Amino acid sequence: MISIKCQNGIPWQRRLAPIIQNGLKKVGVSSNINGMEGIPMLLGPNAHKRFESGNFLQVNRYFIGTSPKDVHENVSISWNGFNGLGYFCLQELDYDRLWNYIRKDEILPWSSGTKYLLCDQVDNGRSNISLENWKRRITVPYKSRSHISRNPPPLKTDLQNLKATITFNSTVAIESLLYGVPTVAYDEGSPVYNFVGHKESDIVHPDREKLFHILANCQWHYDEIEQGLWWTRLNTKKGVRLCEYNT
Known about the structure:
Layout lengths: L1 E4 L5 H16 L4 E3 L5 E5 L13 E5 L6 H6 E6 L35 E5 L11 H7 L5 E3 L9 H4 L3 E6 L4 H7 L4 E3 L22 H9 L2 E3 H5 L2 H6 L13
Parallel strand pairs: 1-2, 1-3, 3-4, 6-7, 6-8, 8-9
Antiparallel strand pairs: 4-5, 5-10
């Protein structure tokens, strides 16, 4: 039994919950929406934190994709945490999935600038370090980019002449890498944590295509979810957290 935890006042959750339920029914798994029984499946990372104990499924924003439908019709699904803290059951990868989301020529050449961009973000309280303590540890001058909730300019406009993008655990790190900017991730909650450097003096150039293949296998389109296809991969928690995953 899966208990889908949904906030009816949030449109994407209200839309997705019955899609998940329909898909689970097709693969023979019983479910309810906001019921009392079953493994919690949490839509969104913050509203349902009281259910984050024992085994639970986490549904969060997509990781990679360059078209509007990727933003609105894809989500990542993991066990027992989101982004880098989640178990995505990646024992076997489908190497065709990535090209559903990007073209190979969208992985831009590495930049070789001189400046640093810090991507500000909300600290969701899942780290041993606060957002302000993180900023105090940074020793290089940087330009700060506001959190997306404050409607900053398009990211591409801030990714010019950069030596690196400095992030905490935000998925903006993925887009930065796609644009060819070396990226630092301080917190293991970042989906790219195990593939990049962890401080601004540690500039790493990972195999981005390999990383993007991994991330594409962490996310699911609504059409796939309505067929229950995600359950084949995640019916049992397996493997390691994404922040511990080695290629």
